[in-house]
Amino acid sequence: NIGWLAYSGTFKLNEKLGLHTEYQWRRDDYVEHWQQGLLRVGINYNFRPDLQLRVGYAWAETYPYGETPINGMGKDFTEHRTYQMVTLQDKISLVNLSHRFILEQRWVGRYSTPELDTEDEFPFLNRIRYMLRLQVPLKGTTMADKTPYAALYDEVFIGFGENVGENIFDQNRFGALLGYRFNKNFQIEGGYLSQIVQLGREVDNKNVFQYNNGFILSTIFNIDLTKKEPTQ
Q: How far apart are CA 150 and CA 181, in angstroms?
């Protein structure tokens, strides 16, 4: 059973550029033990109001959890990533759609011997991700201020290239959420989260899958740092 607590902050610099900051506190046994900590930063470029590019860096620390830890030696490990992300927004009737594509370059920490306390190898891995998110206001017809909403999303992760093990299919995440938009600067959402993870190695000559279920709670900030023209 997992519990994820997330912060996301986007800071508008001008009509085209922005900064993105994010931290996710991912826990096992709901909140009792570590699953993973994830820090992500990036630079946004808005081609159009409905089309955004982001490039950035992510750091993750993954801990041994569950019956079969991700690391074969039962150790925590560090991962460094660079990533490129494209998000396309659309709307059909009351439904807001978001298509998110992410390409990740990953350097995943590995121990060459069990005696080591820190990773001494960082093999390179590629991964591509696609997420579809559907969001509907529960009051009115648009996502105005003081609007509750419901959302569903599904994201699939695919590994490719050299050093990929058993997990060409890497993960799938599904979420069913309720949220509230207080104003243009802040919203909060939370609900059910399902995470399916395939390990990159076999255990007893068999592929191993984790089936993690729990909750996610996110706070989302959108801050405009552009200078406003003084009123006359």
A: 11
**Residue type (1 letter), 82:** T
pLDDT score, position 229? 61
Q: Answer yes or no: pTM beyond 0.85.
A: yes
Output the pLDDT for position 83. Answer: 99
- Spell out the residues 6+ positions from residue 67 whose beta carbon is closer than 8 angstroms to its own: none
| Residue type, position 25, single letter | W
Write the CB contacts of 174 (distance below 8 Å, at least 6 apart in sequence): 152, 153, 154, 155, 193, 194
Q: Which CATH architecture has domain 2-224?
A: Beta Barrel (2.40)
Q: Which mean pLDDT values do the consecutive 10-residue runs of the chain (232 residues) have?
A: 97 97 95 94 97 98 89 92 98 97 97 92 96 97 95 98 87 98 97 95 87 97 84 56
3-state secondary structure the chain: CEEEEEEEEEEECCCCEEEEEEEEEEEECCCCEEEEEEEEEEEEEEEECCEEEEEEEEEEEECCCCCCCCCCCCCCEEEEEEEEEEEEEEEECCEEEEEEEEEEEEEECECCCCCCCCCCECCEEEEEEEEEEEEEECCCCCCCCCEEEEEEEEEEEEEECCCCCCCCEEEEEEEEEEEEEEECCEEEEEEEEEEEEEEEEEECCEEEEEEEEEEEEEEEEEEECCCCCCCC
Determine the pLDDT at residue 230: 60
